[in-house]
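Hi team,

As requested, here is the filled-out complex form for the protoporphyrin IX containing FE run. I kept the field names the same as last time so the parser does not choke. Let me know if anything looks off before we queue the next batch.

— J.
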Amino acid sequence: MATLTAPVAERGLLARPIEPTGVWSWLTTVDAKRIGILYGVTAFIFFLIGGTEALVMRTQLAVPDSRLVGPGIFNAMFTMHGTTMIFLVVMPLSVAFFNYIVPLQIGARDVAFPRLNAFSYWVFLSGAVLMHLSFVIGQVPDTGWFSYANLTERAYSPSAGVDFWVVGLQVLGIASLAGAFNFLVTIINLRAPGLSLMRMPLFTWTTFITSILMVLAFPVITVALVELMFDRLFGTNFFNTAQGADPILWQHLFWVFGHPEVYILILPAMGVVSDVLPVFSRKPLFGYPFMVYAVASIAFLSFTVWAHHMFTTGLGPIATSFFTASTMLIAVPTGIKVFNWISTVYGGSISLKTPALFALGFIAMFTIGGLSGVMHASPPVDTQHQDTYFVVAHFHYVLFGGSIFGLFSGIYFWFPKITGRMLDEKIGTLHFWLMLIGFNLTFGPMHFLGVDGMPRRIFTYPAEMGWGTWNLVATIGAYIIGLSILVFIVNVFKSLRSGDRAGADPWDGRTLEWTTSSPPPHYNFAEIPVVHARDDFWVQKYPDLAGGHGGEIIASAPVAVAAAVGHDEHVYVHLPDPSYWPLITASGIFVAGFGLLFFMLLLPVGLFVVLFGTVGWSTEPVNG
Amino acid sequence: MEHTAVLPAEAHETTTGLNHRKVLMWAFLGSDCMLFGSLIGTYLVYRGRYLAGPKPTDVFDIPYTSVSALALLMSSLAMVLALAAIQRGDIRRLKIWLLCVAGLGLVFIGGQVYEFTSFGEEGLNLAVSTFGTTFFVLTGFHGTHVTFGIVWLLMIWIMAKRGQMTQARSLDVEIAGLYWHFVDIVWIIIFTVVYLIPV
Ligand code: HEM
Ligand SMILES: [Cu+2]
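And here is what came back:
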């Protein structure tokens, strides 16, 4: 047993990289904070790309009988828009916060598997790039973000677009799984002493539950994608109706993944909001245990409702009744959360800073989206809604009004922690109101259009249908959203150049991330904190009001901070060194995917690089 | 992933007292359950729904496949003995049992290769029918898992030969064992669903 702590003597295939700055330091970093920044910046770039695609669609639909872009381009736009926003924006933006914030919130110095974490980012980037190479050769995926069979078979979609979609998503799936395993283990195993499960901040909780959902949902889409890929590349019959296959199989597999996926998209945002509201109401989260149970039961129930996306396929009365009931049931924990957030704010001393504005916007918009969700839980109603703009309105209220508003709340909340500088409150408030107004102008009218029978995924419509007015309103709204994003970008650059210094605890926070400097040192905490209570930092600062809310705002309070910050130089904490292997292994996956799409001979080359990377990785002297 | 080096981090306490890599393996196995669940689900949906090519009853040779299934099951026993050996510090027996596991795994894979070729000669392939499609993809996925396990165990065997496996690293064997037993159990299910239950 004595050898356990002894350093591993063997030499790795490559020496560990050592540069502390510069491009190589980013390419080889295993620091969760840096990886978080990489994820966040990448996701934001894709947000701009996906947003541009949305504006192309809205411009086309602004007036009836428009011929600005043809149906082909329109199909490509909605497919790439949906796929991008879900897999390349909301998920990685959430993962950015998992990386940066969760280790801080649980009082850890890093994640459980730092190199696996870096691997996850590079694979994610590979998948995103592979999918976007389709633009280069001009054969863009065009079968919708759920790509129903058997439209996707070679016979009906002969262009390579679907191949890019299939390969890209499989690679992204590997990245998601690697990340999810990592955060699952990190939260189970790296909590600071005293941080029991029921003391964890809600964002850590939702990260935990989201990771479980990813671990269980992504293999299912992987199987569906592999089946589709085999059909297209090797002539199998998974969705070939001529051989008696049933294309509904795809829908089942897709939605067994797809519904948990929508919770993968919303739970992190819910976690952000649950951490933001108590800070800006100066009150503990109302009904903390109920919140935790609600998150957990939603995760469980999310695997029992998938067929509510398939009511119109004719499931039969028993299945239809079951899925109706389970879908309505899932609204119960969701409702509990909404009431808990409202009760958290109620009676608090509210300060309407930008994070709080976005969090309140989240509650209102998400509630509207939840209500329309319950409406189409009813099969007869859904038969009317399916494939109309009403469904488009629903999922934008939950995904944009919910996830994106929640994540922006997180950006404003944690930006000072990450950069050490405050975002401007005035510009932030302008951003919020522009986005709220633009959002409701865009998606509110879609409820009316949907009930009026306007189908989704049509590239134009005749003037006689009378849909022109609301469509024009929606397009104007979309440009206002675009403007609000420009305002946000201005805010970021202004802050990075000349923003106010943040200090360790700019918002009078409650959880551990505010006990360390902004930005935190490489090792997060000079000394691993010991936790004695939920909202431990708050309790330390205000032992007298731990239960209730603070009456007057006490200027930035500092007790524990001083201990952790300031003497960086004196602390020596040995952290995992950077490594080339995650990048090498991930590049093997990129080459293999590239081979599948362009040049089959590269597939074995890529797989060989993966093997080489894995061997190098596992024989690398850790911390050598 | 990180299965051959002892992380210094492991010297520190974890919150639950469980090793990181062990928790990771359990999570991975949970994930893999969903993978095989979806593949087996696909197979079941298409059971008996094929329009062309040989039928299962035309190609299956149950006694033959039972023998290779038995080889795989026996390998689990050898795996248990391999782990027991390293936990006792008996590296010599560890090496023997590891070779046994890998050898029995190879018997299974050899059997599968032979089976695939002979089915192919009888006209069953990926493209001929939904039966061919679902059969080859499901069993092929499982075979890939077994192959990966064999490579992994042989890597541990090489390290043991080089004197790098000590009693302190029995966890490496334990984690590989978890994976191996899981793959065996999956085969019991596949064997039952695909071969034994008549259509
Ligand atoms: C109260 C909770 C919710 C209920 C009862 C609910 C119910 C439904 C139902 C029945 C549909 C199918 C409509 C149809 O296609 O005809 C649907 C679609 C959808 N929902 Fe929800 N939902 C809820 C929350 C959410 C959340 C939180 C998200 C994501 C953050 C979400 C995202 C979606 C998406 C993306 C679609 C459309 C998928 C597509 O057709 O492309 N939903 N919802
Ligand atoms: Cu759903």
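Two things worth flagging: Residues A 146, 262, 265-266, 308-309, 327, 330-331, 334, 370, 373-374, 376-377, 382, 385-386, 391, 394-395, 398-399, 402-403 surround protoporphyrin IX containing FE (ligand 1) (CB under 6 Å). Chain A touches chain B through 57 residues (CB under 8 Å).

Thanks,
J.
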